[in-house]
Design a protein that fits this description.
Order of helices and strands: H
Largest sheet: none
Structural class: mainly alpha
Number of helices: 1
Distance between the termini: 80 Å
Radius of gyration: 23 Å
Length: 54
Amino acid sequence: MEIIIWLIVIVVVVSLIMIIYSTNKNFKLKEQELKLEQERLALERKRLESTEKE
């Protein structure tokens, strides 16, 4: 009976670790997407400014 309890505890802990890892990975991907979008917008703004000057 004690072995079953330990197995359940191990499964729960491993599941929590995997959830935390995947959430952290997903957050970093979203953060990277936001940085790329900001860079794209900055380049677009520069391009528009340079076409307005001409």
